[in-house]
Design a protein that fits this description.
4 helices, alpha+beta, YchJ-like_M, Nuclear Transport Factor 2, Chain: A, SEC-C motif-containing protein, binds zinc ion, NTF2-like_dom_sf
Length: about 120
């Protein structure tokens, strides 16, 4: 299957090794892609584990799960990577009312002990 992160690669050559813990995402952008794919595949454990320990209290696992299930994830577009730890993206999805939505966010990531984590995001128009 094609990777849900829209890289054009197969899932096994793209985000699957990160999802199953075989390797870790080498850059913030690759982590971002793997987290989008995790929403599409409803992998709430992965989403929670790749959130900084400090930010986890704002992102309970169940919330990741219900947000992942509620929407149909259509497409990820990386808009810009303004620095090594920031990624601007647009996530295209159909919400539970069948409406097309675009989630446009500038996400900040942190690297700790050689692993990347999602820290927080700023919503953009
Ligand atoms: Zn991927």
């Amino acid at each position: 299957m094609n990777c849900p992160c829209c890289s054009g690669k197969s899932y096994s050559d793209c985000c699957e090794p990160f999802h199953i813990g075989k390797s870790t995402a080498p850059t913030a952008e690759i982590l971002m892609r793997s987290r989008y794919a995790a929403f599409a595949l409803v992998l709430e454990d992965y989403l929670w584990e790749t959130t900084t320990p400090l930010a986890r209290k704002f992102h309970p696992k169940q919330e990741y799960k219900s947000w992942a299930i509620a929407n149909q994830w259509q497409k990820l577009e990386i808009v810009n990577t303004p620095s090594f730890n920031q990624v601007e993206f647009k996530a295209y999805f159909v919400d539970e009312d069948g409406e097309n939505q675009i989630h446009h966010e500038l996400s900040k990531f942190e690297r700790m002990d050689g692993k990347w984590y999602y820290a927080f995001g700023t919503f953009l128009d």
